[in-house]
Amino acid sequence: MRPKKHRTTGSNDLFRARLEQIINMKHELVLLAGKIDWDWIDDEIAPLYSENGRPGIESRFMIGLLLLKHIYGLSDEGLCERWVHDPYFQFFTGEEFFQHVFPHERSDLSHWRKRLGDKLELLLAESLRVAHEAGALRGQDLKRVTVDTTVQPKAITFPTDAKLLHAAIKGLNRLARRHGVRLRQSYCRVAKAAAMMAGRYAHAKQFKRHQRQLRVLRSRLGRIIRDIRRKIEGQDALEEAFALPLSRASQIRSQQPRQRGWKLYSFHAPEVECIGKGKAAAPYEFGVKASIVTNNRPAPGGQFVLHARALPDNPYDGHILRHVIDDTETLTGCAIERAYVDKGYRGHDAQNPRRIFISGQKRGVFGMIKRELRRRSAIEPVIGHLKSEGHLGRCYLKGRAGDAANVILSAVGSNFRRILAWLKLLWHLILIASSRLIAAPILLNWAS
Hints:
Elements: H1 28-35, H2 38-45, H3 59-71, H4 76-85, H5 87-92, H6 107-116, H7 121-134, E1 144-153, H8 161-178, H9 188-203, H10 207-232, H11 236-254, E2 273-275, E3 285-295, E4 305-311, H12 321-332, E5 338-341, E6 356-358, H13 368-374, H14 379-388, H15 399-447
Parallel strand pairs: 1-5, 5-6
Antiparallel strand pairs: 1-3, 2-3, 3-4
Helix pairs in contact: 1-15, 3-15, 7-15, 8-9, 8-10, 8-11, 9-10, 10-11
């Protein structure tokens, strides 16, 4: 059932202090909470609820928690812990009185991320609206953009053959214990020793011994696969439960290091892809490709992320440029006059090729266009901040839906960080101007 709308009573409590009496009402988080249109967000997510059942948690509380998590780069557990002792966090999520206990479960954040799904782009649109209202982003800044792609790494270990085979053996044993399937032998101890020795032999460049340990792991994994298939034969419920894990284990057992085509890089996260971006420090990264769009001209509040999207299956950059530009125009409500990209977008399919300028291009590049093309590389530090200060550097959410949600929420957190810095700067300028106005009559009286 749709949650009840947030209402403030405005009354006092004899035994509890109101947050307005504790905190500084000119703090940037307080100012930001007053600028966000919580009612509009609540109305937009209302269709996600049914008409029956128990009322859900207030949308301002959960949306506020998601924003705080990605503004400050916190984990779910760290966010709930900090909320208890930070009155500014409590005020931002709509509390009137200081709370000493977190009122809900941490897992509610996961449920809300799944529930919101595609609606998370509403938060990105709201961040741009708040930035425009606060004066940190101008309408003309939305007309010329920079587009680039990066890799959002998944929270997995570096995939070696020994690690993957060992993970498949442990995963099948864990699943067998859960469903009460008694195996002839688990091979857990043997597999652990073989995986450890395989890593040591590879480090010592003793590759014949390394391959011998891999054969041990492959043969033991094959025995477990065949044993499970014999034990569950004819039992429809167990066959359905083991179908996907057995197919993954068979893929891991059969794949070779230099084979062409699709490969599995994680037993628990099959959506992970191997992406090479030509970096010297990280030739290959394991995760999902993400597209980032920022304003080319520096806005008063800095560089804002205008659009962010996960790109599963590692498509060619030029083939997705048309969709990225269309989605950006839909999100911002402003037509893009010029877009600046790197050489990875050569051969793009944009609707108007004349408004796309590629790094290193000479024809048609002069004056203002030349200066803006030189600023194309300004998107790189934005991506760096998304990874270091936000959660784009390592995704802990499950599946492709988790990848898509993490990309968008990281962009939302980056925009709100810029807005908080802008509000803090404005407040400091106001204090300086007011102090000078107060000090001016005193100086005049002293001079006279």
